[in-house]
Design a protein that fits this description.
313 residues; mainly beta; 4-stranded antiparallel sheet; elongated
Length: 313
């Protein structure tokens, strides 16, 4: 998603579940944040290695990986991948020392990270895995010959996934009208209001993937594939059914809902004023400030006289 603030002083870019707000003057990052993982997903612990070492052994491992303190997990992962590509036995079949060098590299990485790298290739190191519990059921039964005795066990069914599977992907984003607040909508159906300083301030949960968000001085409009939510602060003013993935067009004194072969216009609070149906798909809708509504398809152009304007004269 990409969005620009109303005063053109900052812009937003998103990638997967991350949002970054930057200055339009110099491109500096003003703030960045990441949406929480989807409900039900938890970070799975990586297998731990039994390898421990003295400070001298840690220093030797750092020298082997050509690193110096202070070092970050990102530094370790990047350097391990680079060195593993150079000395992996599969890439150096004619070098008899390749196996020993690779084993030394793995040992150094396990010592510095505490992770068991057995069975993992260079591309998997540093990759975060997540787990989601699908069902959990406990079974109990009596023990023969033991008065009042019982035995129980629990069966858990879960699924694993990568970080991208658990991430709450951002599907829609937009700045507020009149200030630098932001609204971020994730795949989970949660819409997060973020202050101009990058602090989450409020969460709306509509239960469906938001496709479009528009904020005005009086209302917040959240459009999904099936419904349009019209909110005023914490109050739901209207709930409009949407068919065929409509597009929201917002003006100063109302809004329109453009579907494939229909166009409806509403008051700011979501009261339907009128609707135009067409035989062919609509390509463009215009609302001049002279009380006309223009609806165009590929072959026809209709003008509706007396329609309320969306713009103040």
């Amino acid at each position: 998603c990409v969005a620009v603030s109303t005063d053109r002083s900052r812009y937003l870019v998103t990638a997967v579940d991350e949002a970054w707000c930057l200055s339009t003057q110099n491109g500096d990052v003003i703030w960045g944040l990441r949406l929480p993982t989807q409900e039900g997903w938890t970070r799975a612990a990586a297998p731990r290695a039994d390898r421990v070492g003295t400070s001298a052994e840690v220093e030797a491992a750092l020298r082997l990986m050509d690193l110096k303190l202070p070092v970050t997990p990102q530094n370790l992962t990047h350097q391990y991948r680079q060195l593993a590509l150079q000395c992996h036995p599969d890439r150096n079949p004619n070098a008899p020392e390749a196996t020993r060098k690779f084993q030394d590299l793995v040992a150094a990485m396990e010592l510095l990270t505490g992770s068991d790298l057995n069975g993992m290739d260079a591309g998997e190191v540093g990759r975060v895995t997540y787990e989601k519990i699908l069902s959990r059921q406990r079974f109990t039964g009596a023990v023969n010959g033991v008065p009042g005795g019982s035995v129980g066990f629990e069966v858990t069914i879960s699924m694993g996934g990568s970080e991208k599977s658990a991430a709450d992907w951002i599907y829609a984003a937009n700045f507020a009208a009149g200030d630098n607040r932001l609204f971020l909508a994730g795949y989970s159906g949660r819409v997060v209001e973020v202050s101009e300083g990058g602090i989450p301030a409020r969460v709306y949960d509509v239960g469906a993937v938001p496709r479009q968000i528009v904020h005005t001085d009086s209302h917040l409009y959240i459009l999904t594939d099936t419904r349009l939510y019209v909110l005023s602060e914490d109050r739901l003013d209207a709930l409009v059914d949407v068919l065929d993935k409509g597009t929201l067009l917002v003006g100063e004194t109302g809004f329109g809902l453009l579907e494939s072969k229909a166009f409806s216009w509403f008051t700011p609070t979501g009261q339907r004023v009128g609707v135009v149906y067409t035989k062919d798909p609509i390509r463009r809708v215009l609302s001049p400030a002279d009380g006309r509504l223009v609806v165009e398809t590929r072959q026809h152009r209709a003008t509706v006289i007396g329609a309320p304007s969306w713009w103040r004269s």
